[in-house]
Amino acid sequence: MQNRMKNGQGEMRAHVESQVQGMKEHVNRCSEKVEDIQVVNGEIEEVKDNVQRKITEVEDKVKGKISVLE
């Protein structure tokens, strides 16, 4: 009887350890995805800044040409 209980406890322990390992792997994958998203967000911000800078440059050039024509 005690032997069966020990076997059952061992099986339960192995099952729990397996589940915990699966959860750890899932959390690690999620963390990696969050890091990837943060990198992409940084790249998007950089592109937005570059686009805004170029828009401002073009606006300034157009304003300069308009003032020359007036």
Automatic annotation (TrEMBL):
Q: Where is this region: Disordered?
A: 1-27
Protein name, UniProt field: Uncharacterized protein
